[in-house]
Amino acid sequence: MHTIMLVEDDSALCSQIIEGLKKWGFNADSAVNFENIIDDFSKIKPQLVIMDINLPCYDGFYWCNRIREISKVPVIFLSSRDTNMDIIMAVNTGADDYIAKPFSMQILIAKIQAILRRTYDYTTADHDYIEHRALILNMGESSVIYGNSKSELTKNEMKILRLLMTNKGRIVSRESIMKLLWDDDQYVNDNTLTVNINRLRSRLSDLGLEDYIETKKGQGYIVI
């Protein structure tokens, strides 16, 4: 669940947006210290910032510049100011998008979702992704990415790799893998697991990863 920080001094609008974000499943919090937005930013640790331009003390352009000094977190400007110069200023200060007030909450949510996907896909420690030694396992797509190459995995290959990667540095027994895949390993031919492991190794080898999965004779498999 991503955390969104809202920088908006209109308290009624702020409450409305925060409520809308939470209904869509986001963690949402608002800035309270308009003299030092960076202080709130450091406390909230958001994955995205929604920023008004007209703010007390300093404007949104100033705070976007300050955020860019310490973070690449995406910023969306949400403002009643919609001249070309305002939009140019927003882009020049490092904003990722600009929405003029009045606005549609559905459009705001759609833009937030698009920016979050674009920013954090394959880079976060989200539950849908695991990364180890530059190999990224995308469990949502059942695929692996290494460098500029991508390979689709079968359901069993994905389960095996996920188990090994989440237990990196520890030996995982063949029995544990078989129980994960087939619930009751006594009805499965031992060679079936070997076939799945070999196919997974072949896919990783095609990506340029040799010996990613090591065999520990008489014990099981390990990813180091």
TrEMBL record:
Stretches assigned to the Response regulatory domain: 3-116
PROSITE patterns (UniProt xref): OMPR_PHOB, RESPONSE_REGULATORY
Record-level GO BP terms: regulation of DNA-templated transcription
Origin: domain of life: Bacteria
Domain OmpR/PhoB-type: 127-224
SUPFAM superfamilies (UniProt xref): C-terminal effector domain of the bipartite response regulators, CheY-like
GO cellular component entries: cytosol; protein-DNA complex
Keywords: DNA-binding, Phosphoprotein, Transcription, Transcription regulation
Record flagged with keyword Ribosomal protein: no
DNA-binding region: 127-224
SMART domains for the chain: REC (SM00448), Trans_reg_C (SM00862)
One Gene Ontology MF term: transcription cis-regulatory region binding
Residues with 4-aspartylphosphate modification: 52
Biological function: May play the central regulatory role in sporulation. It may be an element of the effector pathway responsible for the activation of sporulation genes in response to nutritional stress. Spo0A may act in concert with spo0H (a sigma factor) to control the expression of some genes that are critical to the sporulation process.
Database matches in PANTHER family: REGULATOR OF RPOS (PTHR48111), STAGE 0 SPORULATION PROTEIN A HOMOLOG (PTHR48111:SF43)
Name the UniProt record assigns to this protein: Stage 0 sporulation protein A homolog
